[in-house]
Every structure is written in C-alpha cells, then in structure tokens.
Amino acid sequence: MMFKPLIALLSTLTLWLLATSATAATLPRMDLEELVVRSDAVVVAQVDEISTELDARGRVVSTITLKVRETLKGPVRRTVAIRQLGGFHGDVGTRVPGMPVFQVADQGVLFLSGDVAQHPASVTGLAQGFFRVALGPDNATEFAIPQVNNLNLVVRERAQPTASTSQLRSVAPTELHLQAHELNTFKARIRAIVDETQSEETR
Residue ranges of the domains in the chain? Predict the structure, then answer.
C-alpha cells in the first residue's frame, strides 16, 4: 500500500491559502453535510488505473478506475470509475481549473455523484469532493487531506433580508477544507451524516 508523505500533501493546501490562482474555478462552497447529502456514493479508495481519450472537441477525457477499500455511502462495489475532463493523451493535454488531479496508487476519500453501479461517476463539488489519504508523522495514523487549490469558493447572499435578488460573495474555505482530518474520525463524521439522513427519509 503506497502513501505520500503528509507534509508534501499539506504544502499544496498551504500554497492555495497564500495565493489565489488567476485561473481558479468558481464554485459554491460546500460543507461536509452538503457533500454527503449531494453525493450518491462516498468511498475510501485507491486509484488503480487511468485511461485517456479525446472527445469530439479534441479535449482530453480521463477515466479513473478506483479499487474500493471501504464504502461509507451508496452501493458496495469492489471498483468504481470516475470520468472527467482533463489529463494527458499522447502530446495533448487538457487542464480544467478546480478539477481533482489523480495519479495511479493515490489513496483518498471520494464523494461521488452518479449511478456508480452502471456508469462512471463524477466527483461532487470538483476538488471539494476529494480528500487525499496520507500517513502522518508516526507512519501509522492516516489523515484525509483536502485538495482545494484552484478553487474560488462563493456563497449566495441577499443584501437585505427582504431583497428579491442575491449576489455571490467570495469566501474562505470552511474548517473542512482548511486542515487535515484524522481518517477514522473523518469517516465517523460521514457515517453519522449518512445515518441521520437515512433516518429522516424513513420518517
């Protein structure tokens, strides 16, 4: 089982906090509850294979095959696939700001949208829905590391409570995307939200 050092993964998060990229994607900010509720599946998985092709417009499309280690929400499967714009195909490269970046052997917690049992899924909230898993300094404790670089997060708000129109305001990430999370604790938080949501649906 391969892991990347925690300090190397945290450096990406630190750089994002120090500077906002001019090519950042703009997305509504999502907290953990929103990620869980809006996702059809949540898994802890390892990237097993990445294949690429060109679409009709000449853009690179990547299909990422994941070997599922643990299912926190959704159908239990041994493998699931993600399909997204971006990547390299021969000499052609496509970069999509805010899209999660994967490499073979990467481990992570992934929030997925779509029927994972039938078709390739997408990552909920782009990079907001991918937390890379790495070992901590003790080489034993696993952490989930947010990957929110190249994302400009916004919230919609009204200038006054009675106003009929609203506007978008840029905001900083929430606690969810500002720090590393001990993996077992993070999984427990996700399961608690899943259980609460399912309980409300059966009432």
Answer: 4-201
Q: What is the pLDDT of residues 105-119, one digit of tens each?
A: 999 999 999 999 888
Distance of CA 196 to the CA centre of its chain: 22
Asked whether the predicted pLDDT for residue 140 surpasses 60, the reply is yes
Asked whether 157 and 118 are in contact (CB, 8 A), the reply is: no
Half-sphere exposure of 10 (CA within 13 A, CB side): 12
pLDDT score of 15 more than 70: no
Predicted structure pTM score = 0.84
Burial class (CB in 10 A: 0-12, 13-18, 19+), 156: exposed
The Cα–Cα gap between 151 and 147 comes to 9
CB 134 within 8 A of CB 142: yes
Interatomic CA distance for residues 50 and 41, integer angstroms: 20
